[in-house]
Amino acid sequence: MAEFEVIDKYFNFGHSGFNTSKRVIKSIGDDCAILDVPKKSKLVTSTDTLIEGVHFFSDVAAADLAYKALAVNVSDLAAMGAKPLAFTLAITLPETDSSWLSEFSRSLKQASKQFDIPLVGGDTTQGYNAQSGISITISVFGTVKKEKVLLRDTAKQDQDIWITGYLGNAAAALALHGKERLNEQQKYLWQQLVKPSINHKFSRKLTKYCQCAIDVSDGLLADLGHIIVQSKVGAKVNVEALPLSDALIDEVGIEEARQYALTGGDDYQLCFVADRKWRNSIHNLAERYDVSVSRIGKIVEQGMHIILEDKPLAITKNSWQHFKKQSCY
Questions:
Q1: pLDDT-derived band of residue 131, with 50, 70 and 90 as boundaries?
Q2: What are phi and psi of 287, to 5 degrees?
Q3: pTM assigned to the model
């Protein structure tokens, strides 16, 4: 099957039925897509690449891969408080497998509907040989009002540090790859890895109470570290307050669970900073959107302080970084 046949059969979803469809002036079929940005709004964009053997296992289901490829990019929009507008897909395949493409396409279309973000273009190419592996690059576009944008450099001393959901589940799930049978708690952990939940609607409403956020993709300490560096402040994290799932504790024990929560990547939860006066409002908003939130610390003058029972906790794991000897998530 030739390139344009692949595009027309598997990736020409159209953009009708999306809330943003009136903002998509021209979609797949021209050299470029044309998007309309609402007045008083700014265009925000982000790009993520997923490479076989680095970001995902070779035996991952096509449906799971499609969902996650889009979800991790929508997570970046959520971290900015932005409303999804459109996305592009560039995919490199070693060969055209109709069964794999059908599953991938079906899941990607479902995810695009779920996140209300239409596919408006991209590129489809073949790798240089059958061993070259799959590479997926998605670029997302969103809009946000200038006064509502969430940034990394706006944290202030004495503000609360919050996190949505649970931490550490995805990192712990990596050890489950290849196991023939998983118990119920292990299945739960695995689902957190392959199909993370993105609280993009909650984050847009959160802009009423905060101006500083980041999504936790490389580990809490690594990503919170970006906030304190760019804001020129410090952070104190209360380890007892970290949200840990029962499944994670049962699987690895409380001490290891805390290490995973602090350093494990791929959670795609939202870490945000807000003034103390908004505590009740944040809890009420979270309840309205069925999102769990935990207050895990506060912004201090300088340094990163990880405290357990009034004492510093030693960190025994490393957060994710490219160009180190790491692979698969």
A1: low
A2: -65, -40
A3: 0.91
Residue among 116, 140, 149 at smallest CA distance from 20:
116
- CATH of range 3-148; options 3.90.650.10, 3.30.1330.10, 3.40.50.150, 3.30.470.30: 3.30.1330.10
Mean pLDDT on 109-134: 86
Tokens of 208: 């009423």
For the stretch 12-60, pLDDT in tens is 887 667 777 688 898 888 889 999 998 999 999 999 999 998 888 889 9
- Please check whether residue 185 is in contact with residue 251, taking contact to mean a CB–CB distance below 8 angstroms: yes
For residue 204 the two structure tokens come to 């847009």
User: Which CATH number applies to 160-312: 3.30.450.20, 3.40.50.300, 3.30.390.10, 3.90.650.10?
Assistant: 3.90.650.10
Q: Residue 168: in which H helix or E strand, if any?
A: none
The two beta strands, 83-93 and 135-145, are antiparallel
Contacts 24+ apart (CB under 8 A), 112-116: 112/13, 112/18, 112/70, 112/87, 113/17, 113/18, 115/70, 115/71, 115/74, 115/84, 115/198, 115/200, 116/18, 116/19, 116/20, 116/84
Query: What gap in Å lies between CA 115 and CA 70, rounded to an integer?
Result: 9
In the chain the first and final C-alpha atoms are separated, in Å, by 31
